[in-house]
Design brief:
The structure is a single chain. With 111 residues, the chain is an all-alpha fold. It is built from three helices and no strands. The N and C termini lie far apart (67 Å).
């Protein structure tokens, strides 16, 4: 049983790192694109930035969910749970912002 547990812990640890790095990369790219679109005064800047942040947060949330597999103590479970709730709340807020921004862009007059 010890070998299987060690293998599972190693695989999950690598998967967590992968999800964390991908999430950070997606958020960073979305931020750079957001700045670029802002400089160009693109009306879809907020929408594009919100979608990028949302995708990045989904990867970060996935890493936290995987982290629950290797948690050893109840205190750690509480901490991971709090992080999951915070990231889920941020995701909900960003999706709400995306919905509102999409409605606002469809109501813009055509030029």
């Amino acid at each position: 049983m010890g070998i299987a547990e060690h293998v599972l812990e190693s695989v999950v640890s690598w998967a967590i790192l992968l999800f964390e790095y991908v999430g950070v990369a997606v958020i960073a790219v979305a931020g750079v694109q957001g700045v670029w679109r802002y400089v160009r005064r693109d009306p879809l800047t907020r929408l594009t930035l919100a979608k990028g942040l949302s995708l990045g947060l989904e990867f970060k949330l996935g890493s936290e969910i995987l982290r629950t597999v290797i948690v050893r103590e109840f205190r750690e479970i509480g901490l991971v749970g709090a992080i999951i709730l915070l990231r889920a709340a941020l995701t909900v807020l960003i999706h709400w912002e995306i919905k509102n921004e999409e409605q606002a862009t469809t109501e813009l007059p055509k030029q």
